[in-house]
Amino acid sequence: MNLLTDYSIEELKQIVTDLGQKPYRAAQVFKWAHQFSPYEEMSDLPLEFREKLAAGFEPNALAEVKKLTSRDGTVKYLFRLNDGALIESVLMDYKYGRTLCISTQAGCRMGCAFCASGKDGLLRNLSAGEILSQLLYVNRGLKGTLKDRAVQNVVLMGSGEPLDNYDNVVKFIGLATAKEGINIGQRNISLSTCGVADKMKRLADEGHQIMLTVSLHATTDKERNMIMPVNRAYPIAQVLDASRYFFEKTGRRITFEYTLIKEFNMFEDDAFRLAAMLRGMPSHLNLIMLNDTGNKGIKACTREEAEKFKQLLEEKGVTCTVRRSLGSDIEGACGQLRRKG
């Protein structure tokens, strides 16, 4: 069955007129959908109209299966979609506001060695409304409204590669930023990609002003091939070229991510190569300490080792941060909770 959250106001106008209602009803339906409201709460819609809507459209996309709260305050949600597929979202509290990490696919086909999301492959893409529903559910659960959101920022960094589900992700951005709905600013949306270079350029050409986060995780194509199969299609040089292109088109500084893997990508030569890669590019580098996902040969480093690598990079002029690790006690890495169901 179709989802109300999949539709823009313009699309809803056609739906409501087909059901015998005036076009202005579309904005009312849109508002209720963005409040994650069931039909019985849609009090300004005629009962007969609600019944007709209910016959063809689900009001929302998901139900909570499990909710875990970390000792650091991070909250992880396991959701079941209407067809039974499981996805995850993670709520993190930062000094600049609450940030919700949401999924764009059920599973993932990228196969990155350090990530739990892709261990079972890709089940399917999420629709725009399914992506959006994660945000709407959490905002409602935190007593947020459309005028006073409880979630200030969104990162498309949960299960799935967002640019592998390009059309639905771009539609989600349009829905989430609509002023009549939850109205998240584009600059409060961050999209994390493993480096799908052609789609990165397409994002830039279409004028999207979101934040772009690009996963590097290695400094040579040989090493990146070993942990990120996508590198065979989009090697490092192409990823860096697309990153520069995105900055030149949008003016938005790129964030690069580099997962620290002990005895693999943390040598002094790696620091030299990283510095050379990023020289002259307006960017910030996030160094990520692994959450253990049980992958053989992928060893987490200590905080001391991470800080030592950071120092090497800073000595070479790289602006970088060791990202705060959140939710490790509640299986905070992407895909861990979903795989246990």
Structure description:
The strands form three sheets. This protein has a ten-stranded mixed β-sheet with strand order 3-4-5-6-9-10-11-12-13-14, covered by helices on one side. It has a two-stranded parallel ribbon with strand order 1-2. The chain has eleven helices and 14 strands. 46% of the residues are buried. The C terminus is likely disordered. The chain is of the alpha/beta class. A hairpin with a 5-residue loop joins β3 and β4. It is elongated, with a radius of gyration of 21 Å. The longest helix is centred in the C-terminal third of the chain and has 15 residues. α6 runs parallel beside α8.
Top keywords for this entry?
341 residues, alpha/beta, 10-stranded mixed beta sheet, two-stranded parallel ribbon, 14 strands, 34% helix
